[in-house]
Amino acid sequence: MKILLAPVGSHGDVHPFIAIGRTMQQRGHEVVLITSEPFRELAERQGFGFAPTGTADDYEALIHDPDLWHPTKALSVLFAGERPERLLRAAYAQIEAHYERGNTVLLGGTLGLAARLSHEKLGIPFLSVHLQPSAILSIADPPKFAMMTIPRWWPHWFRRALFWYADRQVLDPMIAPAMDRLRADIGLKPIRRIFGPWRHSPQRLLAMYPGWYGPARDTPEHLRHVGFVHYDQEEQPLPDAVEAFLQAGSPPVVVSFGSAMRQGGPYFAAAVAAMKALNVRGLILAKAGSQIPADLPGTILQADYVPFSTVLPRCAAIIHHGGIGSAAQAMRAGLPQFLMPMAFDQPDNAARLEKLGVAVTLPAPKFREPKVSMLLKKLLETPSYREAATKLRRTMLAEPDAESMVAAEIEDFCGKDVSVA
Length: 421
Hints:
The chain has 421 residues and is of the alpha/beta class.
């Protein structure tokens, strides 16, 4: 059958879909990746079909937007304005063009509104793929948000009202105008609470994290926990400079604030200053440019990209933004984690990792050298963080194969097209 993969986002959002695609291809299925143009080479390297939803310039404009990592402005970058509407229309058009009724299954990510719309309009079998617990808003066990933490003592009716207000008064005004115009063009009526219950597939939700990482007492009945899937271009060999650096001294501290980070200058500077103050070696994994401090000492190396799965087992700790992909790779490697959450799912992941005993957290506005040094020293010198991380690694390595579980779910929906008016 034909498997359409429609992730929206950066490498951390796309890589898990590559893992799924590789498994489905090995099982004899045709795979088409439907996402932004910069991921064409990655898809074609795997032998997938590729259908672009936006240009390389669109992607660059997005990741260079200074508000992308702002705790309250980030959603408007993703959903408001001309570019998001154009990309939404392009994604819907590509899904429609590749859909073969009775022989196609569609997987869409948390931000994949075009995938949900395609299911409603075309009847294509559709599975929602959520990489992090915060994507599924639990009333009983609410996630932590960048703007606020919901106290446990708040009654459920108030939490439910708060989510309704956020959907109707904050998110809908950003998303609904573009969505309503597209819906009108394809013969559908307007919809509200777009980023609430509507965005989830009514057929299957795949939680791409273990139940122990994101437990919730009000999990939807059609949700399945399949565990973390891991792909990060691990087939790439380590660059010679990185291999030589790793062999030249003690295990370094990795610093990475995500593949889409282009405004990380102050954060990289603070991390470098802290590592110098503590006399520890460091490996910065980030796109070179003005955000990287000039004249790095010989104890700190910068590389544009290195697969975490290859390098993290040889490191002492990791400083990162709290993205779920980075967090999962660090847990799998048994590394203590220093988290600097900014927006999206990052504050919730940080809270979960702290609760698991493997991490310390410092919010971005406070990420300055003195506090970074203090917390990094604590992370490296307190045995409990390493012990908890080692225990968590053993737990993850003992879990069932997530890719096979996802593949079985996908194959179960072949031919389950929905009748539409």
